[in-house]
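hiii, so i know i said id send this last week but things got crazy w the move. better late than never?? heres the sequnce for the chain we talked about at the cafe, plus the structure i predicted for it. fair warning i was half asleep when i ran it
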Amino acid sequence: MRTFIAISLPQNIKARLAQLQETLKKSDADVKWVDPQNIHLTLKFLGEIDQQQIATITKAIEEIALATGSFRASLNSLGAFPKLQFARVIWVGLENGDSQSKVIAQALEEKIEILGIPKEKREFSSHITIGRVRSFLKKDKLAQAITEENQKFGQEKLEFAVTAITLYKSTLTPKGPAYEALKEVNLQTT
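okay and structure toks below
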């Protein structure tokens, strides 16, 4: 089964990101928008794993969660990878919570590599994907919309508590991926 480890987002944050998507859609760019209910912060994409690996991956997540306190995160920026003029991924970035997310992601990389799942080649970047660009149709309008919304978005205080790490199963369907939480592990309360 196809899996990943992520930080779930509260409904009010998902709702605000859905509003942001609606604003960016007005650019008429060729973007596949992430279903607002599926928006999350990926810590580690695992790919295909078998049923036996779930227990060992869960144990690794539990060990990390035991050593990690819950924390506050806030969203403060909007951008695109690899760069704005040639956007492939549209993302929202973290301000508070960025360093904690990176520590968790690094710990996951170390523990899960031992289980035979290779480390990510790129350095971890705390971001929430809200859309994937399919073609460069109206790319300039999209870049302008992202720039304009980033100025407004950066002034908002979108804070939330990060209290758990979740192992998700991702099933690809014709309507897009369907996510199912296999295991949620609480971080330590401070």
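btw The domain at 2-184 is CATH 3.90.1140.10 (Cyclic Phosphodiesterase; Chain: A,). thought thatd interest u
miss u guys!!
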